[in-house]
Amino acid sequence: MSKLLRILFGLFVVFALVASACGNDDDDAPEPEEPSDPNIVELGGGAVIDITECPSEWDNYQGVTDSEIRFGSSLPRSGALAGFGTISDGVQLYFDHVGPIDGRDVVMVSRDDGYVPARTLTNVEEMIDVENLLGFAGILGSPNNLAVHDLLNENCIPQLLNLTGLPEWGDPGNYPWTTGALMSYETESRVWCQHVADELGTGATVAILSLGNDAGEAWRVAFNECATGLGLDVVEEIQHDPQADSVGADVINLAASDADVLVVASSGAFCPQAVATVASLPWEPMVLVANGCQSISLFWVPIGPLANGVRLVNTQKDMADSSLADDEWVQFVRGALDSQGVDPEAASHALGYIFGEILHEVLLDAASMDGGINRTNLMRAMWQMDFDSRGAIGNSPRAMDGANDSYMVEAGRIEELVVDADGARWVPISDVIDYEGETGTFGQ
User: Which helix (H) or strand (E) holds 95?
Assistant: First the structure.
């Protein structure tokens, strides 16, 4: 090849390389990324918050001052479920113990609703008007939360950690401002049902006592569906008034069925009432009670050995459980409450510590996001939480992923209550049953 040809060939190669590097074909050029819409907050699984749908006067930083982060709650401090009324006090005590977040004190404002939904609505409306709140955390009761569900979502106000397992709380597609704090009643019923089938086999008979409200209906329907699939026979059902003085007469009526199992799909004082009534009868069914009836000091110490043999799906640690005396979380909570002058086994202060830990993790995550702690970041952090809870049975995870995984509590263990001279304790009957990431979202 002549010198001239070599020069021309070299120039051709250089030109080709330059053209290739710079790109001369629009079809091959990478598409520029679309700028993200600042009005859309991604929660996971396609669920979003669109803040253009919020009221014109809405303030993303409402309830966040230079010195405080303010939450509201409505709980029954009177009536049959009054034992749960101090949960918000326990949350406040938790934050008093751990100190400020992002330089701000967490303040809980709580009012009594007596487990009456109309009073919950009145409480929430008044607190929205006068208390300067970031959102609400720890409202108790399915009908009570339903009473404010639409109000809070329409006004883009966080409704966190609903103290109820109603499946509707796992619906970020339609209600992105609302999350639950307990195992879904559908999941709980599924575990009950499988346990009965494993223990007693096909054909076992079941009687159900359930709350006469949305919670009781969710438990009842889910158990019946599962029972049909596993060959169990639900032979009698009674729904009781949530404001009843006692369920003793209802239990006596159910005893006539002589069922192999009694499911108490209720809460509060109704659980020990039902169990004490069974103990007074010749009827000897396996008794399964709802997770909300877990507290040894609140519900079972008052009836003592009559409570022996009661079973439930336990999801969290109990301060009065003598078998957990050496547990790290139990020692932390007992020590903290003692230092604050509060009996660790009194009322529901220790439960407040469990939910306080969850809210603490969420606030820390929100504080690390662009814009810091505000309503939208709070919901992003809540729907994307993922940490191992020290207060959970087996230190199980508390995790969600928007519409991919909309339920925070998906693990529990069948445990049986033993009351004897050594104290009261929940004794494991099964390993931890873990549905983490498997329960999806509401309606699917």
Answer: helix 87-98
Of 88, 90, 70, 169, the closest CA to residue 373 belongs to 70
Q: What is the dotted CATH code of the domain comprising 186-314+412-434?
A: 3.40.50.2300
In tens, the pLDDT along 360-406 reads: 999 999 999 999 999 999 999 999 999 999 999 999 999 999 999 99
Closest CA to 221 of 193, 179, 258: 193
**Orientation of helix 142-154 relative to helix 117-130, angle to 10°:** 40
User: How many residues in total does the chain contain?
Assistant: 444
Half-sphere exposure of 381 (CA within 13 A, CB side): 24
Q: How far is CA 408 from the centre of its chain?
A: 6
User: Out of 10-14, 184-188, 203-207, 440-444, which region has the weakest mean confidence (pLDDT)?
Assistant: 10-14
Domain extents in the chain: 47-183+326-409, 186-314+412-434
Q: How many helical (H) and strand (E) elements, i.e. helices and strands, does the chain have? A: 11, 17
Can you tell me whether residue 208 is helix, strand or coil? Answer: strand
Closest to 155 (Cα-Cα) out of 241, 81, 62: 62
The correct CATH number of 47-183+326-409 out of 3.20.20.70, 2.60.40.10, 3.40.50.2300, 1.10.1670.10 is 3.40.50.2300
Of 342, 334, 354, which Cα lies nearest the Cα of 291? Answer: 354
Contact of 36 with 100, CB cutoff 8 Å: no
Enumerate the β-bridge partners of residue 414.
313
pTM of the model: 0.89
Q: Indicate if 186-314+412-434 has the same CATH topology as 47-183+326-409.
A: yes
Question: Residue 344 gets which letter from DSSP?
Answer: T
First to last CA, the chain: 73
CB atoms within 10 A of CB 26: 6
Closest CA to 314 of 297, 289, 332, 351: 289
Q: SS3 for 100? A: coil
- DSSP letter, residue 297: I
Q: Which amino acid is at 170?
A: G
Pair of tokens at residue 268: 């509060």
8 A C-beta contact, residue 260 and residue 232: no
Distance CA 275, CA 300 (A): 9
- C-alpha triplet 63, 176, 148: angle, nearest 5°: 65
- Return the H-helix or E-strand segment holding 121: helix 117-130
* Integer Cα distance of 8 and 29 in angstroms: 29
Rounded Cα distance, 337 and 286, in Å: 35
Q: What is the pLDDT of residue 34?
A: 54
Residue 335 and residue 313: Cα distance in Å, rounded? 27
